């Protein structure tokens, strides 16, 4: 590991410990040239396995690119796309798997995208879930409507306490 101070190509590990419950390893390093110390964090690559069986590192910008296409003409900005990609990565990492099939990445995209923009969500879902007919759209739209208009919260149960004094 190159020294970030003097750019000496070599450094010595003086301490190594696991962090984040073993998900990452932090190494304290010392530069033999300038003597300064710095820390590196090593993290396993999160791999996405495509249908072809080929795996590649999870790439947030790929998520952004896919979602951006679905968001064309929609009031969604780059910050929101970046945030969505972050949420997707967090969701996948939270599963604790080192490798995930690509369709799980798609699944992880659907939920936050639905919150972000329903039209973009429909576009994305139509490709991702391979809608084959208008009926597929109708069903999905019915579900979206049920979420938005049917948002009348069920009355709080007796335990919820309609706190009448
Ligand atoms: Zn140095």
Instruction: Report the major sheet.
Output: 3 strands, antiparallel
Order of helices and strands: EEEEEHHEHHH
- Residues in helix, %: 40-55%
Continuous helix count: 5
Radius of gyration: 23 Å
Q: Stretches where pLDDT falls below 50 for ≥5 residues? A: 159-164
Question: Quick one: overall form?
Answer: elongated
User: Taking strands numbered 1, 2, ... along the chain, how are they ordered across the largest sheet?
Assistant: 1-2-3
Structural class: alpha+beta
Average pLDDT confidence is 87
Portion in strands: 15-25%
- What quaternary form is this? single chain
User: How many domains, as an integer?
Assistant: 2
Spatial gap, N to C terminus: 68 Å
Give a list of the ligands: zinc ion
GO biological process, one term: negative regulation of DNA-templated transcription
Cofactor: Zn(2+)
Function: Negatively regulates transcription of bacterial ribonucleotide reductase nrd genes and operons by binding to NrdR-boxes.
Domain ATP-cone: 46-136
Gist?
This protein has 165 residues and is an alpha+beta fold. Helix content is 42%, strand content 19%.
Description:
The protein is of the alpha+beta class. The protein has two domains: about 10-45, no CATH class; about 45-150. It has five helices and six strands. Helix 3 packs antiparallel against helix 4 (about 120-130). The radius of gyration is 23 Å and the shape is elongated. The protein binds zinc ion. Zinc ion (ZN) binds near residues 5 and 34. One of its GO terms (biological process) is negative regulation of DNA-templated transcription.
